[in-house]
Amino acid sequence: MKVLDLQCPHGHGFEGWFGSEDDFQSQLARGLVECPVCGDTSVTKKLSAPRLNLGASVPAESKPREVAAVDPQLQAAWMKMVRHVLANTEDVGGRFAEEARRIHYGEAAERNIRGQASREETESLLEEGIPVMPLPIPKALKEPLQ
């Protein structure tokens, strides 16, 4: 088993477990390795050294430093907020812009919704005075666990 420290272009760090380096490279090439926070598949390996337990502690100045690391507490708070949104909204999918307009103009019952909208649709909604906010949700959270 190979445990790798991975990172997406947005600085989200996470761990991946693979059978071998070839297994990691194969899954990466097929787009199967994605950031659990933002869903980006442009994942890279972070530099890491094998851990050797020789019984002596390593001096603090020789320990590797993290570059562009995201605060784990901030990442956990973001995930908590995303889970709250998922639990308290109705997923209307690709009908988001249409349904947001219907709610805004009183043609549908007022409720919290989420879904997908293009950049143009989002800009149009904002121009009409309909408050919307993009929220990237990782694929793993959109689907039920099996």
TrEMBL record:
It holds the Pfam family DUF1178. It comes from the Bacteria. This is DUF1178 family protein. It comes from Pseudorhodoferax aquiterrae.
